[in-house]
Amino acid sequence: MRAFQVTAHNTPPQLLEVDVPTPAAGEVVIEVAACGLNFADLLLIKGTYQEKPPLPVTLGMEMAGTITQVGEGVRGFHVGQRVAAHAGHGGLADYAKLPAALCVAMPQDMPFVDAAAFLIAYGTSHIALDHKAQLQCGERLLVLGASGGVGLTAVELGKVMGAEVIACARGADKLEICRQRGADHLIDSDTTDIRETVKALGGADVVYDPVGGAQFDAAFRACNRGARLLPLGFASGEVPQIPANILLVKNMSVLGFYIGGYVTLNPKVLTDSFTTLMAWYVEGRIKPHVSHVLALEQADAALDLLRTRKATGKVVVDLKA
């Protein structure tokens, strides 16, 4: 089978021919139809991601496809079933082996491309906003990097949860996509003072930040008393330093969140969230925004769309193209 693998860190991944895997106890093998890409895939290539699977490693953290093999002891899944999975790696291959516990049954009418773009972005935003920050109806939510893979889902879910949403992104085209997804206010991070604009709107009650750096600092200074901040990544390359004295005076909270950690920390939080999100998808309340779909042979170009920030929402690799 084909597999897009990292064989050495900081070297270009390669499309290789490898053996089709066989499931161990508790595992399934999926014939992958589509794989969603994430910024973390770029970190895996460099070896700087918080999880470092042994090399060689097949890229692709989330996938959707059809179960072809079921290992001993697996319950609730069967050969021929359509599933989505957040497995951490392995999705950019014709077949992927993973624990059955990481799979989620897909709604019957859900396309594989939608399912492959679904779990990490929506799961990250839903758990961060609901479980961690406990976002309330009527609160003001500031989303940094709002046109990106996770940022756009935070805009969309914030509106579903009843928040007033401020979307911060670069350029009119990206901000227009945020508006279409429900943003109430738009901030161009290249031309607008984030701190002063958010304060003029009444300040932020919750900040959703996959960017870090100067944007985090500006958002931090625009927070209301009792605000909650969610540092979810550092796409800017700069990890912010948080002045604890301001946290004290304003009774603010900083809530770290990494969705992969919940696989062992509290997997029920993941499964409960995915169940809720799938129901919202079926009801038509949410729908993934996929800006690019490319073939496996174009995986390098697909990753470059993330690297150069030319994508909005999700980039998906179609294994059947």
Low-confidence stretches: none
Mean pLDDT: 94
Cα-to-Cα separation, first versus last residue: 15 Å
Q: Could you give a short account of the major beta sheet?
A: 7 strands, mixed
**Count of alpha/pi helices:** 11
The helix-and-strand class reads alpha/beta
Sequence of secondary-structure elements: EEEHEEEEEHHEHEHEHEHEHEHHEHE
Helix percentage: 25-40%
Rounded to an integer in angstroms, the radius of gyration calculated over CA atoms is 19 Å
- Indicate the overall shape: globular
Number of strands: 16
Strand composition percent: 25-35%
Summarize this entry quickly.
The chain has about 325 residues and is α/β, with parallel strands linked by helices. It is built from 11 helices and 16 strands.
Give an overview of the whole structure:
With 321 residues, this protein is an alpha/beta fold. It is 31% helix and 26% strand. The protein has helices spanning 39-46, 112-116, 119-132, 151-160, 172-180, 194-200, 213-221, 244-250, 262-265, 267-282, 299-307; strands spanning 2-6, 14-17, 27-36, 57-58, 62-70, 82-86, 95-99, 103-105, 140-143, 164-169, 185-188, 204-209, 223-231, 253-254, 290-295, 314-318. Strands 3, 5, 6, 7, 8, 15 and 16 form a seven-stranded mixed beta sheet that branches. Strands 11-10-9-12-13-14 form a six-stranded parallel beta sheet, sandwiched between helices. The mean pLDDT is 94.
